[in-house]
Amino acid sequence: MPSTALPLVDALDILKAYEITYPNRTLELHVKTRLEKGNSPVRGSVSLPKPISKKVAWLVFAKGKNAEEAKAAGAHTVGAEELIAEIAEGNFSVGNFDKCLSTTELYPLVTKIARILGPKMLMPMVKRGTVTDDIVETIKRMDDKLGFNSDKLGWIHTGIGKISWTTKEIQGNIQAILKEINELGKGQDSNKKAAFIEKIAINPNMGESIHLLYFKNLLDFPSVTIK
Question: Which molecular-function annotations from GO does this UniProt entry contain (predicted)?
């Protein structure tokens, strides 16, 4: 693989050539954000122009009518006090869930297992819209969103599509993610002159990475010609 950063189109041409026999492999995006002392990890979600088809495994804390609505909306596991107790006692694993909701009624009880849900990025929070009594609408809205968060080194790793997708489709998803990351960075970035996004790379899963040339104008990747 090239050792220097490339325009997006050139990078995709190379990856498609390398992976010609594996067109259904997932293409991954890696974004290095600038770390500043005292800043919290970057966490967010974004609606992609071309959604990545994946069945979201929902864990929902609700009871009564809200529980029935959650099940009807496709939630994998729905429960209330008994489920919370099982999780607290270590008798129920939350490792296979992608997203989590709680009704306002049960939220005070859910906070008691925050130490378990938090590390899995599953802890419901009011400011994220995951503590709600409008279960059905929230599941519909968030099913189409891609969630992401940075690690302790400032890297964000996420899937963005398939190798077989067109350059336009892949570029659209990358742009949407980068814009959202950049917006999140504005809220916690004290150094306005330095770029919040420092590096970008893409690779097929189980494959080598190629670094991308990146300009502040997220709408324009250098030397891009849509194919």
Answer: RNA binding; structural constituent of ribosome
